[in-house]
Structure formats: C-alpha cells, structure tokens
Amino acid sequence: MSATEAEQNNPAAPQNAVAPMPTDENQWLEDIHGEEQMAWIQEQNARTEDLLEDADYVALEGEILEVLDSSDRIAMVGKRGQWYYNFWRDAEHPKGLWRRTTWQSYQSDAPEWNVLLDIDALAAAEGTEWVWHGAHFLRPALGQAHRTAMIALSPDGGDAVRYREFDVERLAFVDPTAGGFDIPTAKGGISWEDADTLLVSTTAERLPQTSSSYSRTAVRLKRGQSLRDAEQIFEVPAEHMRGAVFHDSTPGFERTVAIDMIDFFNVSTFVLQDDQWAKIEAPSSVDKDIHREWVVFRPRESWEISGSVYAAGSLLVAPLEDWLAGERTLRVLFEPDAHTSLQSYSWTRDFLLLNLLADVSSQIRVLDPSQPDADPAKGWAWRQLDACPPLHDVNAFAVDDQDTTAENAGNDYWLVVTGFLTPSTLLRGRLGDAADSSAAVIKTAPSFFDESEFEVQQHFATSKDGTKVPYFQVGPKNLVLDGGNPTQLSGYGGFEVSRTPAYSGTIGRAWLRRKTTGASAGAERSGVFVVANIRGGGEYGPAWHSAALQANRHRAYEDFAAVATDLIRRGVTSPEHLGCAGGSNGGLLVGNMLVHYPELFSAISCGVPLLDMRRYTKLSAGYSWIAEYGDPDRPEQWEFIKTFSPYHLLRDGVEYPDSFFWTATSDDRVGPVQARKMAARMQAMGIRNVWFHEAVEGGHSGASDNRQAAALQARSQQFLWRSLSGD
Q1: Which residues pair with residue 298 across a beta bridge?
Q2: Phi and psi torsions of 297, nearest 5°
Q3: Residue 239 pLDDT more than 80?
Q4: Range of the domain at 434
Q5: Whole-angstrom distance, CA of residue 111 vs CA of residue 60
Q6: What is the reported pLDDT for 699?
Q7: Of 116, 243, 653, 690, which residue has the fewest beta carbons closer than 10 angstroms?
Q8: How confident is the model at residue 441 (pLDDT cuts 50, 70, 90)?
Q9: Is residue 584 a part of any domain in this protein?
Q10: Is residue 191 annotated as part of the catalytic site, yes or no?
C-alpha cells in the first residue's frame, strides 16, 4: 500500500551535481554528546552565567518564575465524557500533574482535582527525566466512560517520545507483560483503531525512517505483538517528509486515513476502502481534512478545477463520498481578501467556526451547514460572532462536538481572548441558542504588571519592494519619541506561522515594566516591545507566506529591517537602543539581521537557531525544511541559500551587535549544533561580546519545566536589557 506518486515534482529529488561544501573549522562541534564538545559547552555556560547572573538577574528570574508558577493562571481543559482534563505545572510540581475535574467543580474558584499521574513522582521512581507530551484516549463504547489512554512522554524534552498505555480508573500503566501497549522512544505517532489495536507510525525498533528522520511506514499493532511483527499498512518514499495513519472513530463515520507528507506544504491524503487506499484527488499543495460526511480543502496556491479558480487561502467543502466517486462540485466557505485571512477552524456538532485575521486582528464567523445557499457553488449561511475587540487575538473552538453526556455540549464552544495588555480570558458559549452571541466568562488570568501604564499601537512599515508590513508597538503612554527608548523587536517570518497579540507576564515584568537609570537617555525609560508581522508568516494567508519562500527569502529580512528602520525614523528608538530576538526560524531571522543589517541593532538574542544553511539538511530534522528554504546540495539553489546563511556571511572588520546564542543539547528538531558553531566562529574572529549558553534538557523549546524556562527567558531578557538600556 505505497503512497508513491509519479506525478509529484519533489523539490528534494537527488541531482547529479552537488554544491561544494565550504570549509568548516567547527564541524567537530556537530558531535552532540562528545566529551570534548561538552567540555566546550560547560566553559561557555560558565562564562555566560558569570556575565549575566548578578543580583538583578536573580531577582528577574524569580519574577518570571512567579509568573510561570502562578496558581491563578487559567488551567485550560479538554473535555472527555463527563470529565475535564488538564496538565499543570507549578513550584511544587515542576514536571507536572495530569489531572481531571467535573464541570461544576471547574467553574469554582478552587476546583477539586483528581490527580491521575504525577510526572515528578514517575521521574523519581524510574530514574528518567520524563517530560509530558500529551494523552490519546481510546473512544469508549456508547454510554461508557473514557478509561484507557496512550500517554506520550519524552525522556529529555525532545520530539522523540515513548507511548505507554494508562488506565485512568486504576491510576496505573498497563503492564506490557500483561499485554499493555508500550511503544519505545522515537519520533512518531499513534492512533487507536480499537481496544486491542493501535495504528503506529514510528521509527522505533529500527523501523524505516525518511531523510527527515520521521516515520516512513505505518503498522497495525495488535495487543501483545512486537512492532517488528506488526502488519505494515502504509509506506512513503524515503525522500518524503513523513508517513502516518490514523483512525477516525466518529460514530457513524468510522474510517482509516493515511497521510503522505511530501514536505511541509505538500500532502497527499488517502482513505482505506476495501483494503485499498483511495486517494482524495486534489493537488498536493491543497490541504485536505475529513469531518463526518465532509471533505474540506484549503489551497496553498491558486487552484483551478472544473472551470473555476479558487484563491490560495480559501476554504472549500464537498461531500466526501461524492468526491471519491468523481463529483467535483465545491462550495466556497471562505474567500480571502487583501486584508483578511483564515487562520483555523473548528467544528461543533452542527456548526463550523472560522477564526480569521483582518490586518492581524481577530474576527470569528459561525457557519451553518444546514442552511446552504441555493447555488451549489456558494457556501453556507454565516454570521459574525461579536466577541473580538480590536488589536486582540480571539480563538473559538469546540468543547466536545461528539458529547453524549447529560451536558448536551455538542454545540458548545470555548472562546480565548488575549491581547498585549489584556490577560487571557476563557469564555464558554453555545451555538444555536438565542443567546449564543454572548459567551459567559469562566476564568480570567491574573495581571502581572500595571497594564494601565502602557498602550498598544499598530503601525505599517514600507518594505524595500513597497509592501506594507504591519507591526505592533507596546510601550508607555506618552512615549517620548527622541530615539532613547530600549526597544526589543521580535519576529518569526516562516512556515505560515502568524504572530498575533498575546499577553505575556514575562515581557511585562522583564521588559515593559523595567526602568533605566536614566544615565544615558537623560531620563528614566521603560522598555518598548515590538512584534513584526513580516512575510513568510501567515498573517495574510498562504500568499504572505509564499512571498518569502526559498529564492525570495530576502523579503522576510527586508520586511524586518523595514520595521526596525521605521521605529528609528519615528523616534521610538535608535540603533544604540534597538535589539531583536527570535527562536528557531526566528533565530535564522535575527541571525540575518546580524550579518546583513548590523548597523540597525546593538544586541541580538538568537535561540535554537538555524544558521549554517549549507549543512542544515544534514543536521537533526533539517531535511524536512527544504520546501521552505531550498536544497543547499543543488548548486543553483545554494546560490540563493548562501545569501541568507549567517554562518557563511560573517566578515572581518564589521562592527557586529552584541550577540547571545542559546540552545539545548536535547533539541532533536533543529539541534544545538548551529548555535555552537556560530558562536565559536565569531569568538575565533575576535568579534566582541559574543555569548553562548546550552541547556541540557528542554528539546526545541530549550526548557522542560518552569524553572528552566524562567532561567532561559531571564538570560535572554537580561542580556538585551544590559546591552540596550545604557545603564
């Protein structure tokens, strides 16, 4: 049952010619756990800690930890049957508690939680620093309670996890010697087919993996079987990113679905029919989703079919069985425009919720499938949900669209409202009722600083090619526009990820509320925090993302530089007081600010970054990002990739900003190697103020518990403040 598709033009296909590999004096640092390498890291860590960890740092770390450990923050829940489940970390439980409560109790100020699994106790008992990665329940028979779940645990915070069967009534793992499922630590995923069968996509036990280090095959694992003996039911080519299979157990719509993830932006989807995989025919650049009787399409690029053209970022729907039978009539549920994009959607029992952005402010639409337009090419009746204040992020999603309990919650929805100066609020409403536009407040997160001292503004910078680029500015009211304000500019610009308004007690305490001594600026100043909505992200849909792909990557960096320039032009700050911060692809972003625009910034905090773009496909999961950046092995693509490879663009005689690189040994997505090599090369070149820190645990997030997260954030914020405040 192979998903090989001859028609696919795979961008990662092997070529005869290979681009030359530049000299790399630091390739020895690619041995992640080597003794000599770890000694180098310990020396670097000690040096950085000596620089940053003074009395101010200790106080700052404590304030950030207080935010992260706050007992008053919202305990977000997921409903399964009559229970509401939550995973919680605090000072007493740094690794966390998996717990549940009833709806009546959850609404109270002090819910009574039933603890199911204590991860700290488990780690101590088993001698492994387990990090929680979620729970996957088996759907029970009608009228029965949810009892069995597969628990995902990472030994170090990385992407590789172990899946173990857990009984929530017995509060114990099901013993593998008694038939309990226990999937060894590896990258992959699982899905329940029935009470005695899992569909497993994994690289465990040396099952085949793709060039991106993800699962290449999927197997049907019976209780008591080994993975090696399990029946293989799906396979993808090695050069594709990942293969996976899952079972949809929705009553009345049970089906098995396979995904061939060719790359990040190209996917083929199959439905198992009579032991054969039936392909959902549509271009691989069209996202496909199956819900009950519907198949939903979201094209990433313009899609022409049956004489009609559908714009990238549209949302389209058709009856699944009709589509599989060859019918090609599509209803249009959403069409983007120059200002508005679809970010996500969620089904309740009888309605569809669309989460939109209009110039990076939220809008929500409620669609009613029971009221289709008379024209079969047009959509369903819809109305706007009146729940979105300007310059805020608001998301609506179903509570439990398949609820069969007495709550009758099938059309209930959660609403999460947040803004830069608005602590998050959780509301709950019900669609279909007369009062469904007025959701009730359930929980409100605490305030961690005096938000009344500050204001949020939205501005638009003009990029090099004339594109208007929005950005949010959070700073003191009556901000003095004389260029003297310490300003932290943040961005991402990749993989169609949107940067939206969000409350952060950490930013409030570590940056906005912090005051300079006034020594250099002539008066006491608070920090200014800025978020840039550059191309490469998803703020304006797929077209905003694709505008900065591969050979056009420079547009993301030009956009970010345009925002920096606009902040300086408006007098918000000056190069002396402007710094930037980013992680992962955002680390690549700020790395390019370092090498292309050093004159705009005085400090750069670069976390878990890509920086060596010649070897990125050979490190950790880097091969999977060829669709975003290009293939550096191909000479014609290396020609444009090398223009945004910071590791290869460092030059002697340049006055570079103060630079802080941070990462984690256990990061098995980007890996710690690139940050190591960049810091080592800059230090060897004699570039001043280059600092490096590597945590052992935490994976790609750089932290596996709140203490580690507080230390990581405090280092970054302390570094930037010391460089930009002029104190």
Answers
A1: 287
A2: -120, 140
A3: yes
A4: 337-445
A5: 31
A6: 80
A7: 653
A8: very high
A9: yes
A10: no
Of 93, 392, 693, 700, the active-site residue reads 700
Cα-Cα-Cα-Cα dihedral sign, residues 292, 294, 298, 299 = positive
Asked whether residue 509 falls in the same domain as residue 591, the answer is: yes
- Same domain (yes/no): 438, 454: no
Shared domain check, 263 and 366:
no
Does 702 map to a domain? yes
* Residue 97 · residue 117 · CB < 8 Å: yes
Instruction: Give the integer Cα–Cα distance in Å for 198 and 245.
Output: 10
Mean pLDDT of the chain: 95
Residues whose CB is less than 8 angstroms from the CB of residue 432 and which lie 6 or more positions away in sequence, other chains included: 350, 351, 411
**Encoded tokens for 241:** 């990113």
Mean pLDDT on 534-540: 98
CA distances from 431 to 174, 290, 350, 351 (A): 39, 22, 8, 8
**For residues 614-638, average pLDDT:** 96
From residue 169, alpha-carbon distances to 100, 138, 165 in Å are 12, 14, 12
Q: Which of 556, 577, 423 is nearest to 493 (CA)?
A: 556
Q: How far apart are the first and last CA of the chain?
A: 65
At residue 360, the 3 state secondary structure works out as coil
Q: Is 412 within the bounds of a domain?
A: yes
Residue 441 and residue 457 in one domain: no
Burial 353-366 (b: 16+ CB within 10 A, else e): bbbbbebbbbbbbb
- Model confidence pLDDT, tens digit, residues 275-324: 999 999 999 999 999 999 999 999 999 999 999 999 999 999 999 999 99
In angstroms, rounded to a whole number, what is the distance separating the alpha carbons of residues 452 and 70?
21
Quick one: tokens of 356?
Answer: 């939109």
Active site residue 498: no
